[in-house]
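Module 6 notes. Inverse folding takes a fixed backbone as the condition and produces residue identities as the prediction. Think of it as a translation problem where the source language is geometry and the target language is the twenty amino acids. Below is one complete input and output pair. Work through it position by position during the lab.
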């Protein structure tokens, strides 16, 4: 267990109550307010009562605490080792220039200890200074909801510029890429960060204003799979970030309903085909036709 039970929500909440009680006497209402803000709703039934003289004896009847100093929560050795391991991930530089490192402990694991199979090798360049700058600006725009202007180099080598309001970032472990999900851009609602050549804040908010997002029409594909060579486990991993339902047909056969956006259709098609005969698409007809067209194209190329 990485994080000990004493660092759980309950102990953190009690620590916050005692920290306030060191500064000034707490009323019952103030205690309940802290509990409701930092713990669970039902916690108001036991934490305030337990803090009193009848149980933990940490709070006096007048709302003061027996403690002379504010409680602290030092990190355990295991937590320090975990933080050191996370600091070795190149993606941590997207969020901070100098990650926290504890010199008195070794990392819990090293990057070479983790092997991800079936992963593309052309992931984003997380160490690139311009990529880091773009990432942080987009992250700030998501937090404060302001429009940005982005430029990408299209397939013809031309620079295309558009305005968008970033909504969130998503990460694909298989592709090892971050994607920007935004509103109203003529470049589409999904843009790979690796394709962004430049990114700037729109100083003129009126000019930077964009229209309402054209929500992509949700689509779904239904396929049956035979659980051979851990096919079910691999399917669930490959499509982990998509909404789906799985139904068991018999001991080795399952039906999977996968929901996706139109923009992800080609990616879904490629992943489905990668499972070969272990997957059979049953609906919709349009998706089945995409598979036929794809296989026909491959055959014409001698593949």
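Target side of the pair, the amino acids:
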């Amino acid at each position: 267990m990485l994080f000990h039970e004493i660092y759980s929500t309950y102990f953190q909440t009690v620590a916050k109550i005692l920290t306030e009680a060191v500064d000034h006497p707490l009323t019952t209402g103030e205690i309940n307010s802290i509990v409701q803000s930092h713990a669970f709703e039902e916690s108001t039934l036991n934490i305030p009562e337990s803090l009193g003289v009848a149980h933990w004896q940490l709070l006096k009847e007048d709302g003061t605490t027996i403690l002379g100093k504010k409680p602290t929560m030092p990190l355990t050795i295991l937590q320090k080792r975990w933080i050191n391991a996370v600091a070795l991930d190149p993606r941590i530089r997207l969020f901070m220039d100098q990650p926290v490192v504890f010199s008195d402990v070794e990392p819990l694991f090293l990057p070479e200890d983790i092997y991800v199979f079936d992963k593309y090798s052309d992931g984003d360049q997380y160490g690139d200074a311009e990529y880091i700058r773009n990432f942080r600006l987009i992250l700030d725009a998501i937090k404060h909801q302001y429009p940005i202007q982005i430029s990408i180099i299209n397939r013809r080598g031309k620079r295309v510029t558009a305005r968008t309001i970033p909504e969130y970032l998503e990460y694909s472990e298989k592709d090892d890429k971050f994607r920007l999900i935004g509103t109203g851009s003529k470049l589409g609602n999904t843009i790979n960060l690796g394709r962004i050549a430049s990114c700037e804040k729109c100083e003129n908010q009126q000019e930077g204003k964009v229209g309402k997002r054209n929500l992509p029409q949700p689509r779904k594909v239904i396929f049956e799979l035979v659980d051979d060579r851990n096919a079910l486990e691999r399917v669930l991993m490959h499509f982990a970030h998509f909404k789906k339902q799985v139904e068991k047909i018999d001991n080795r056969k399952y039906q999977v309903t996968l929901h996706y956006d139109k923009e992800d259709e080609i990616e879904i098609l490629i992943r489905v085909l990668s499972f070969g005969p272990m997957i059979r698409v049953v609906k919709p007809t349009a998706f089945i036709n995409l598979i036929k067209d794809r296989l026909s194209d491959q055959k014409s190329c001698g593949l």
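Reference fact for the lab report: The chain has four domains: 1-74, 77-113, 129-201, 218-300.
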